[in-house]
Amino acid sequence: MAVHHISDINSPYLAPYQQVRDRDALGPDGRPGLFIGESAVVIGAMLRAGVDVLSILTSDRHAERAVAMVDEARGFRSHMPDPQVLLVADDILDATVGFNIHRGFLAVGRRPTQRTVREVVPPHGQDALLLVVEEINNIDNIGQLFRNAAAFGCNAVILSPGCHDPLYRKSLRVSCGCALHVPYARSDAWNADLQYLRDDEGFALLGATGGGEKTLREVAEQLARPQAQPRRIAVIMGAEFTGLCVDTLAACTARVKIPMAVGVDSLNVGVAAGVFLSRLTEQ
């Protein structure tokens, strides 16, 4: 493993980390083919997920921990090179990225190959649980949804075309790196892909909506009964205030609500997804 002690802020080793927020604002175009991981938790997830991590940037104070992170993950990376460890003084670290890195670690990795909806859906004949996400463009919510998907054993996450990038630095941090471990695909034909999941792959499409005809408890109890066919469920979540679009609701096998107290008509999408997935997986 190469460890570099860097004292020059203009070092080419630091180029991928220059002005992180400005490049984040450009989305994937800000650093084509690459993404930034922030925090030791996320970088550990990057290393264990088999991401091609090019380098880890941290303070001189964290040198021992940075080296240990790479060493501990080596069993997951048998055919991959170690990332370079870049060590700088705290003032150079903050000046390079453009803000105070109070979490102490950044890393640059190559983006995994984009997968299609058909590639991430488990084969026929198997039980499966999908989290299907429509037009969620809040960076925190997209991270929370991936963390929920990991916590409740979803086989994959399906994103609509307008969803935020789950590998955006803050979204990835909120997900605790789960977006690197839960398979996902971004749909490029939303209505057709919903129909494919329902008609070709045999998924029950459960649309989460405050106007649902059935409660979550009713649907969960119905799906928990013994069945001759595999239990294949896709939970569809939309933004809290706009909800699911008309065409998506029309494609659903069931429109499902979470009963709430009088005067409360919605939950944050991350909270609602957690309630849905917990109830559907506890049987």
Description:
- This protein has 283 residues and is an alpha/beta fold.
- Helices cover 33% and strands 20% of the residues.
- Strands 8-7-6-11-9-12-10 form a 7-stranded parallel beta sheet.
- Helix 6 packs parallel to helix 11.
- The longest helix is centred in the middle third of the chain and has 13 residues.
Based on the model shown, name its key terms:
alpha/beta; 60s Ribosomal Protein L30, Chain: A; Alpha/beta knot; 11 helices; 33% helix
User: What is the CATH architecture assignment of the largest domain?
Assistant: 3-Layer(aba) Sandwich
- Quaternary status: single chain
Strand order of the largest sheet: 8-7-6-11-9-12-10
Percentage of β-strand residues: 15-25%
The gross shape turns out to be: elongated
Secondary-structure element sequence?
EHEHEHEHEHEHEHEHEEHEHEH
Radius of gyration: 21 Å
The CATH class designation of the largest domain is Alpha Beta
Termini separation comes to: 47 Å
Structural class, from secondary structure content?
Answer: alpha/beta
Tell me the helix content. Answer: 25-40%
Mean pLDDT: 93
Number of helices: 11
Give the CATH topology of the largest domain: Alpha/beta knot
Report on the biggest sheet: 7 strands, parallel
Number of domains: 2
Number of E strands: 12
| Name given to the CATH homologous superfamily of the largest domain | SPOUT methyltransferase, trefoil knot domain
- Poorly predicted residue ranges: none
